[in-house]
Amino acid sequence: MPYEPPTHTVERSLRATTGAKVVAGVDEVGRGAWAGPVTVCAAVTGLRRPPEGLTDSKLLTPKRRTALAGELESWVTAHALGHSSPQEIDELGMTAALRLAATRALDALPVRPDAVILDGKHDYLGDPWKVRTVIKGDQSCVVVAAASVIAKVRRDAMMAELGAECADFGFGDNAGYPSPVHRAALEALGPTPYHRLSWSYLDALPRWQHLKRVRSTPEALALEAGGQLGFDF
After folding, report:
1. Cβ atoms of residues 77 and 147 within 8 Å
2. Principal place where this protein is found (predicted)?
3. How far apart are alpha carbons 132 and 128 in whole angstroms?
4. In 3D, which of 48, 229, 75, 84 has the Cα closest to residue 149?
5. Strand-pair category, 78-84 with 38-44
6. Taking a C-beta distance cutoff of 8 angstroms, is the pair 132, 18 a contact?
7. Cis peptide before 128 (omega within 30 of 0)
8. Binding site residue list for a divalent metal cation
């Protein structure tokens, strides 16, 4: 399906209205997975023309996405990754875990951004960052699209490495997301140390329900449900 290429429109607007000189794009992957971290990439691109075919990582084939990520990592001005572990997700809830991962990514950049373009409609970063949220920013904004592709490829590679250790779970193919192979392995073998134990998939696994971590507040439970609905694979 044809799609409009991303532009620097939002970044130019931020520069003009806030005086920002360094604008980072931020996108996440892994929000809806059963296993593995949630990963955030922060990227800075400037206003240069991006590599051909750049768009939201979900619109690219795995082969094209991997090739494009290699181009992007040398094309961007700077980029950094931040992760929140399954244990941190269980303890903090998804929104706080996203904030932690994004802060880790932004803090790892060589220059602190003056403003951040965040994919989606919800600002999970907040103060002290100056944030502009953009729905479908991973399709419309160059800097967010670049972050989207790098985050997806790097997290998929991490999960493939775990797949060698946990072969029955098919992490190399499903990246920790729900799939028939993943579900069957959970039923037979139970969760690995890489699984999120507060997720409701355990409700359907009577043999392993004793391992579930129950959140103590309605807000935390709502965050979990929101995370599971946000499948991005």
Report:
1. no
2. cytoplasm
3. 13
4. 75
5. antiparallel
6. no
7. yes
8. 27-28, 119
Question: What is the bridge-based pairing of β-strands 115-119 and 23-29?
Answer: parallel
- Return the amino acid letter for 102: A
Residue 91's CB is within 10 A of a number of other CB atoms, namely: 15
DSSP track, 23-80: EEEEEEE-TT-SBS-EEEEEEE-TTPPPPTT---GGGS-HHHHHHHHHHHHHHSSEEE
pLDDT, one tens digit for every residue, the chain (233 residues): 457 899 999 999 999 999 999 999 999 999 999 999 999 999 999 998 999 999 989 889 999 999 999 999 999 999 999 999 999 999 999 999 999 999 999 999 999 999 999 999 999 999 999 999 999 999 999 999 999 999 999 999 999 999 999 999 999 999 999 999 999 999 999 999 999 999 999 999 999 999 998 765 444 555 444 443 333 32
Rounded CA gap, 83 and 101, in Å? 5
Chain centroid, CA 6 distance in Å: 19
Q: Detail the residues annotated as belonging to a binding site.
A: 27-28, 119
Burial of 114 from C-beta contacts in 10 A (0-12 / 13-18 / 19+): middle
- Rounded distance, CA 111 to CA 88, Å? 27
In this structure, is the dihedral angle defined by the CA atoms of residues 214, 219, 221 and 227, taken in order, positive or negative? Answer: negative
Pick the closest to residue 90 from 195, 193, 196, 191 (CA basis).
196
